[in-house]
Amino acid sequence: MDRVPRARRGLSRRAAGLLLHPTSLPGPVGIGEIGPAALRWVERLRETGIGAWQTLPLGPTGFGDSPYQTLSSFAGNPLLVSLEILRGEGWLRDGELGGAPGAAGSQVDFGALIPWKRERLRRATEAWRRRSSAAERRELEEFRQRAGGWLEDFALFAALKDAYGGAPWWEWPSSLARRERSALRQARRKWAEEIERRRIEQWWFERQWAEVRRTARRAGVRVIGDVPIFSALDSADVWARPDLFELDRYGRPTAVAGVPPDYFSATGQLWGNPLYRWPAHAEEGYAWWIARLRRALELADAVRLDHFRGFEAYWAVPAGSLTAAAGRWVPGPGADFLKAVRAALGGLPLIAEDLGFITPAVTALRRQFRLPGMLVLQFAMERLLTAGEGAPEECPVDTVCYTGTHDNDTAQGWLRSVPGGDSTEDAERHRRLREAAMRYVGGDARDFHWGMIGLAWRSRARLAVAPLQDVLGLGREGRMNTPGRPAGNWRWRVTEAQSDAADWERLRRLTEREGRL
Question: Which residues is 224 bridged to in the sheet?
Fold first, then answer.
């Protein structure tokens, strides 16, 4: 992956961005890919004067299909690899791309799509192994050397996971779960072809995403990535380095991550991720985290650091708890961690996701390292209209202002929803909030999404971002994720017809008028 000059990474100019995960891109194979559709998307941003494209994490997803619960913090998601490009390179035949579940629909049917696409990737890797040139094999080997340990750990982990029917690593034979050297040597010999297939898939992801990045760079579009604070328990990260996580001798967490009761849930959110053994990270100079962020910045110009408050203090929930309410705050690595990262990377091209229960200590940590924070207009509007808090458009300049995020309803969905329940009192509260919100942004309900985008674009925030769903004026059908709902998330896709029908000229005029072109 080409390195991006550091000057391109910062958020130094007033700009506008759109939030769209690559799985949501249109296309003919049931899921968005990082091929022709991604290149057309970048060109659309250039034409509209939008200077930033924000994605969700790009890692390989596991159970639940969440990009925030990936099988590796370093690898790319093979489901994003463009089959159209592989066909153009001769690794797939024309007829092999037909019959994709969901085809060009508005939802990703992960249950049907995953086995279909994995079979196409298997056929393509087999064709590559039979017919690749010496130059192509050298290029793969060069990628393997650059990727270092993470590629080998992930390729073996993924091969073993398939070999044992998708079981989590702690249910594998104990010699493999404990990574005994002789068992790993035997596994590498036994599943050599499967391991090689995973390397090829990762190389294809790398090459295709590099082309997207080059196109974005030429178009003047900065890519903003996303780094989840925690790793999934069933991941190559935890399997390869259990000493860096709070696990017992059987590989099970002693406590798990979550957040206390909040806007989304009265009992908190129980994420279930293992917690970091921060003293072990500190002893190594935070080398694992530095490598993780360096990798993220190979894939993007800047990254959103998810759940930033967890670096100041994190919510630790005893393992086995039914809800997150039983947790407690535990001090995080704080300034020591950020100093080490800054020294290693030569800067901190990060956006601090500082939502939720934010204390003065969290704000002080963010400001100490001059990291932009976040403001979500849906939350800010509710605080303004119910508690009289300050005007959201007067937010600090060192802020990224969002109409909503992947965890929010769309602007239109939020306007129509009834926060807190279905009682008469809730309905009346919502009616008053709805009317006040429409008065505040101007216009009527049909144009409310444009009012919210305009409010974000007018704000003092250096960067203003809207999910594409808000540009399209979608309702709840466009929601990407509902926190606390275990299934049915991450499925939304934009169709070609929706994209073509969007009022891109209106967005361009707004972007130009507000000095964000």
Answer: 54, 302
Q: Cα(17)–Cα(457) distance, rounded to whole angstroms?
A: 10
Query: Helix (H, G, I), strand (E, B), or coil: what is residue 471?
Result: helix
Residues 6+ away with beta carbon under 8 Å from 471: 18, 449, 453, 502, 503, 507
Taking alpha carbons only, the member of 436, 349, 366 closest to residue 11 is: 349
407 is catalytic: yes
Q: Please give the full DSSP string across 336-347, using - where no structure is assigned.
A: HHHHHHHHHHTS
State the catalytic residue, choosing from 201, 226, 301, 306.
Answer: 306
Tell me how many degrees the CA angle 422-424-430 measures, rounded to the nearest 5.
75
Of the residues 33, 237, 407, 409, which is catalytic?
407
Residue 199 domain-assigned?
yes
pLDDT digits (tens), the chain, 517 positions? 544 334 344 456 899 999 999 999 999 999 999 999 999 999 999 999 999 999 999 999 998 999 999 999 999 999 999 999 999 999 999 999 999 998 888 999 999 999 999 999 999 999 999 999 999 999 999 999 999 889 999 999 999 999 999 999 999 999 999 999 999 999 999 999 999 999 999 999 999 999 999 999 999 999 999 999 999 999 999 999 999 999 998 899 999 999 998 766 788 889 999 999 999 999 999 999 999 999 999 999 999 999 999 999 999 999 999 999 999 999 999 999 999 999 999 999 999 999 988 999 999 999 999 999 999 999 998 888 877 778 888 999 999 999 999 999 999 999 988 554 556 777 787 788 888 888 899 888 999 999 999 999 999 999 999 999 999 999 999 999 998 788 899 999 999 999 999 999 999 999 999 999 9
Task: Indicate the residue type of 237.
Answer: D
For the chain, the domain total comes to: 1
332 occurs within a structural domain: no
Say whether 503 is catalytic: no
Count of beta carbons in the 10 Å neighbourhood of residue 445: 14
306 is catalytic: yes
Is residue 498 a contact partner of residue 30, using CB atoms and an 8 Å limit?
Answer: no
CATH of the domain at 208: 3.20.20.80
Cα dihedral value 398, 399, 400, 404, nearest 10: 180
Residue 155: give the domain boundaries. Answer: 12-223
State whether residue 155 is helix, strand or coil: helix
Q: How far apart are the first and last CA of the chain?
A: 28
The strand pair at 463-467 and 350-352 is best described as unpaired
Residue 476 lies in a domain: no
User: Would residue 25 count as lying in a domain?
Assistant: yes
| Cβ pair 354, 307 in contact under 8 A | no
Structure tokens at 508: 């361009």
Cβ(226)–Cβ(55) under 8 Å? yes
Q: For residue 399, with 0-12 CB atoms within 10 Å meaning exposed, 13-18 middle and 19 or more buried, which class applies? A: buried
